[in-house]
Amino acid sequence: MNIGEDFYKYKTSTKNIMQYYIWQLPSMLINTIPISILLATLYSLGNLARNSEITAMKASGLGIFTLIQPYLLISLIFTILTAIISEWIRPEYSYRAHQLIQKEHVSEKTPFLENIPYRNPEIGHTWFIQKMDPRAYILHGVTLSQNRQDGSDLQKITAKRVYWLDQKWWFEDGTIQMYNKQNNLVGESKSFQIKEMSLLPEIPEDFLGEAKNTSHLSASGLYQYIKTHQFLSSETIAGYEVDFHHKLSMPFNCILALLLAIPIGNNIGRQNAFKGILITLALFLLFYGMQFVTEYLARIEIISPWIGCWIPLFTFVFIGYKMIKTIN
């Protein structure tokens, strides 16, 4: 989507444009923190090397791994911070930014999610929701089918309106139709005005997860989605598993950036600083290129999803570690 073109086309206000980019900040931080660590490490170690301070510290008996402990600690802190942003902050605000764009496309004050299917195979529940208000958790045009363990229909509940109140579902203006084990109707459907459904285990976030793009889900949310959607094709599941492992591995890019920057930053004092930056960035881009290829191979089921996401990281962490060990 061309965001700038959409802003112009729908005459988006300056306030909404600013709000959109503020909500996108967590997503930007996840990508910029590793690069910032890389450049900061190059600058810091480059200055130390240029003033022969690293040489002096080594001469006093300090090993290279002792020297880089403060850098490793800072990198670990940013890895944890990135993981927190990725899991609990980015999904929520990324989705809000998406909703803001959707709201610009329609005249409604609140953008509705439409035609949401949801299946919970563990207890035999299948939902179909015509329309959902994602902020008030109000569902419209709901059909809930409940199956027995043998797969036969038990009952089908329809409701014009369903709302989430006091941590339970309330069905309004609907019908209940029972079935026998041969999937034949049992009697006539029973109508109701209001029906409390406190025993239903599904929550609004389950339906939001169904309607959201994987980029708007946390790793835990995506894991639950995969767990309840094993009926999907193997290729589709593989794609979701790649996204899941990608979300888990991203925070560790902070450590990778540090390990690649340390050996080159140590040599900047004796070499051209710009050349050192280019070499480090080239290594980092090579990592992203390898990750792109292996994740693609995982999506088309040539290799396992966890291999596709983690092997590039392990490979370049090992390269960074070996480069550090060569520092005299």
What would your notes on this structure say?
The chain is of the alpha+beta class. The protein folds into 2 domains: 3-104 and 237-325, no CATH class; 124-200. It is 57% helix and 20% strand. The chain is built from 12 helices and 6 strands. The chain has helices at 3-9, 14-23, 25-50, 53-59, 64-67, 69-105, 204-211, 219-227, 234-249, 253-267, 273-299, 305-325; strands at residues 113-120, 125-133, 138-147, 153-165, 168-179, 185-197. It has a 6-stranded antiparallel sheet, with helices on one face. Helix 2 packs antiparallel against helix 6 (69-105), helix 6 (69-105) crosses helix 10 (253-267) and helix 10 runs antiparallel to helix 11 (273-299). It starts with a helix and ends with a helix.
- Indicate the proportion of strand residues: 15-25%
Average pLDDT for all residues: 90
For the largest beta-sheet, the strand count, sense and barrel status come to: 6 strands, antiparallel
The secondary-structure class comes to alpha+beta
Helix content: 55-70%
Distance between the termini: 50 Å
Give the count of structural domains: 2
Number of helices: 12
Widest sheet, order of strands: 1-2-3-4-5-6
- Strand element count: 6
Cα Rg = 26 Å
Which parts are unreliable, with pLDDT below 50 for 5 consecutive residues or more? none
Briefly summarize what is shown.
It is built from twelve helices and six strands. With 328 residues, it is α+β, with helices and mostly antiparallel strands. It has two domains: 3-104 and 237-325, no CATH class; 124-200.
